[in-house]
Amino acid sequence: MENYRRNKTTVSLINYHFVFCPRYRRKIFLNPSLGERFKELIQEICDDQGFHIFALETDEDHVHLFLYTLLSFSPADIMAKIKGGTSKIIRDEFSELKAMPSLWTRSYFVSTAENVSSQTIKPYVESQKTRS
Q1: Within-domain flag for 132
Q2: Which of 32, 44, 74, 85 is deepest in the core (most CB within 10 A)?
Q3: Domains: count for the chain
Q4: Which residues lie below 8 Å from residue 114, measured CB to CB, with a gap of 6+?
């Protein structure tokens, strides 16, 4: 799982764990079709940008995303691409969200996987959906 990313001048292993929420902590992911569409969009964005998703789960009102990327992308760049790339499409496709000026809060949590192995974080993210 932990493959080093290489380009002409660097070798890196940058793993990020993100947690982010819809505005007003709305429980948008209670709609299963919205959750599936969101995951499709995230996969498209990550494929386009060269990010590799280790784990992606949605809970009622938040998202856990664990990925690795090239050194050239900051966490702020990644969140801008993901939030910006999903907000308008999701609001256009799901009429119950059309009135929202934006889908996501400006805030997010991010952590690197330097002190915890990827083998620990991936099961944690995947267990969020089934937690009681």
Answers
A1: no
A2: 85
A3: 1
A4: none
